[in-house]
Amino acid sequence: MASCAVEGGCPSDYIAVAIAILSIILLIARSILPCVLHKIPRTKGSGFWIPVIQVFASFNLLLSIVMSVHFLKFKKTHWMLSCYIWGVWVEGPLGFGLLLSCRIAQAFQLYNIFVKRRLPAIRSHIFLPLMLLPWIAVAAFIHAKKPLNARCHMGTYWVIPAVCLHILYLAALVGFTRAIQHIEFRFDELKDLWHGIIVSALSIGLWVSAYILNEIHEEISWLQVASRFLLLIMSSILVVVFFSISSSQPLLSQISLRRREPLEFKTMGKALGIPDSGLLLQREPVVAIDPNEPLEKLLLNKKFRQSFMAFAASCLAGETVHFFEEVHELAKIPIDDPVRRIYMARHIIDKYIAAGAAMEVNISHKTHQEILTTTDLAHADLFKNALNEVIQLMKMNLAKDYWSSMYFMKFKEEASMRSSGCELEQMSGWNYSPRLSFVHATDDPFHHDHFPKGSSHDSYHSD
């Protein structure tokens, strides 16, 4: 026992390492399999990079503990096996610090969007490095002072400040979460954050206890073995549960890994419960389409909008009609329901307005900046100027060609057939119940619907 406690390689050490490897495999599977099984397109921005960074930080945290706390039996002669590389830099700024900073960045985003009602003034790719600066400063200071001994342990004088830094970041996460707890979220963001705090607090509490015992009591062999075993096990539990309840993509975390369960919500409008969102009634009233009517008025008819959208897609301009449709759905949400309006507005910004968005529309720089710097994401006229510009583009580039296209000819033919069918139905007294058609669209799963707790619910992302 005394030998392996110093040199590593105890049976319990190998068990802990095996559990750590399994946790990393589970972590990677949990992040990749839902996207592979459900063919979810890769998201852009923080919705993609923050979860990826969390996986990277989790791997660093576990690997640094294995390399610096004598789990494996090997001679530490190479400079790459230095205690300061693994025990200070990789475990601190690139491990635990980065992991907590990702979580704080998510809470910071929610605070700005739902409390301040604006997009964060500091983007995540800037906010995250700023959060890491204290860790980098402390790591550099420790590296300069070199307090670690041959077994990568620090004395009490250095352990207490290091532990305080860990607790400080957990306190920052609690602070941001308390600031948004009064928001009646549509989905589970706040619950996920509190779950993350509870799990991290319990794990960090045990982790810190094991860390202190391992650092201070070098002379007790059995305590060294037991404390480092607990240190790695609690870290393994922390990284897996921490990622599984990520508030960055709550819908994605709800997606089942079983292929049999269909996706229940295919558009943001359906997820938010907007009336008639994405639905086409097979027996809609037949309305005569007059080409002399304003295009924005004609597009309010779903059948016409579907035909015009198909034509626009054939001209590689389908995003303009999709944008019109989603802004039209946003208008259905009451002004006194700011939370749902914010969800929908942020979805539209991420999908159509942000630079490099999946379906970015062509609007002026002034309008673009007005939307991105708005002080109220729930404002009724947030997309008014953008919508006017998009409609003008459709009138100039699409409308004239549409009236002479096969799409309009087919639309008139179908309208005529539906009109004849309605007359026959009225004569025979038949009654057809409306049926829902499939809606083919990708969507942003920062959100899902108000389904009963415990029910099956799925959706996907385009955050």
From TrEMBL:
InterPro entries on file: RGS, RGS_sf, RGS_subdomain_2
Protein's name in the database: RGS domain-containing protein
Pfam families the UniProt entry points to: RGS
Organism the protein comes from: Rubroshorea leprosula
Keywords from the UniProt entry: Membrane, Transmembrane, Transmembrane helix
Span of domain RGS: 294-412
Positions of transmembrane segments: 14-36, 48-72, 84-105, 126-144, 156-180, 192-213, 225-245
Signal peptide: none
